[in-house]
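REQUEST ID: PR-0412
SUBMITTED BY: lab tech R.K.
PRIORITY: routine
TASK: structure prediction, single protein chain
INPUT:
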Amino acid sequence: MQRIVHRLLDVIYPGLWEIRIHLHVPLERLPSLVNESPVLALRGESGTYLADPMVFQFEGRQALFYEKFLARSGKGVLLAQELSSTFDPLGPPRLVLSEPWHLSFPFVFKLNGVQYLIPESYQRRAVLAYPCLEFPFRWGEPLEVMADCDLVDSTFYEQDDGVFMLTSPRGGGGADDRGAIVVFHTHTALFPQGPWQPVAVVGSVLGRNAGPLFWRDGRLFRPTQNSQDSYGRAVVVAEVVRLETSGYREIARFELTPDDADASHLHTLHVTDDCTAIDIRQRGLTRAIGWNWIRILTLLSRLRRSLEPSQF
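STATUS: complete
OUTPUT:
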């Protein structure tokens, strides 16, 4: 029975999400980015997909971090691909983090000379920070940023003598996760374990993070997921006009929507000084059966877990 389930997962889950890296993109070209040719494109093999791409640098090295979702296990693991200064791959991608629970959104944050890998780990009911042992492939035992919480896609931003955490509470899945952005603050010397003080809860369709905050033309922006029609449909870029311990405010400025013959969804945007990373979902099989494949995958994953010992 397990073999049958595995074969079905491979057939209906053929790696439809794709990662793309573009060279430096001016702010005015971001809305049409999906129509431009990338310098690097990665796509998962059958039974997997790749998502949540983020590019980080440390001590003269740079790497692309991303989630690889494994349909057979029903969870994501994190990989890193080291890149040259011209974004050519340096060797094969390597597994950097795997846990008994699902991992995604591989955010890397540098503070006080230390790099931390802070992925989404809501199934663990915690936000965890893994200190870097050797960038980009080796990470130490995690420190607990926040416990007993169901938070997704957390990002961190240093300002003055403190650190802000922008995150979202997980709802029932899919579009239910989009409704709020929660902001916490702690002093730099207390990072990563806090204590964290709540700053604001902003109820909005601009909730869940789609990538790290970034600066362009002297303005601070936050990529957000627009999942009003379906999960991961598009990315709305909001300008952060207030980020203080006394409050938070943002204004939606423009949207990246992949409405063309090849792509139907886009749900991650990481903008750096040198490049822009996105993930898109190819139409392919999903054009014929739409979101039913996700429901099928969920049922098959639940069936698989019922046939195997618990991972926790």
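NOTES: The longest strand covers residues 48-58.
REVIEWED BY: pending
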